[in-house]
Amino acid sequence: MIHARGSGILLHITSLPSAYGIGDFGPSAYRFVEALERARQHYWQVLPLNPTCTACGNSPYSSPSAFAMNTLLISPEMLVREG
């Protein structure tokens, strides 16, 4: 079985620019995906997106939930835009 090779970038969502101090799944995420496509990259690898809490050391690797996403990653801009 032959597997095609592909390349990509590791970049956490919080590293994207945003007017709210933390990157989110807003317009900058869409622009980043478009830039990946122009650069012919196939993968966007992200670190855990789980919620964090002080009791868990603020680490997504010791999250109170394995199934939830951190609500800070929801884009206020997109919420307003979508109504």
Q: How much of the sequence is in beta strands?
A: 5-15%
Helix count? 2
Number of strands: 2
Widest sheet: strand ordering: 1-2
Order of helices and strands: EHEH
* Rg result: 15 Å
How many domains make up the 3D coordinates? 1
Q: What can you see in these coordinates?
A:
The chain has one domain. Helix content is 23%, strand content 7%. The protein has a two-stranded parallel sheet with strand order 1-2. It is α+β, with helices and mostly antiparallel strands and 83 residues long. α1 (27-38) links the parallel β1 (8-10) and β2 (43-45).
Compact overview of the structure:
With 83 residues, this protein is an alpha+beta fold. It contains two helices and two strands.
Task: Describe the structure using short key phrases.
single chain; 83 residues; alpha+beta; 2 helices; 2 strands
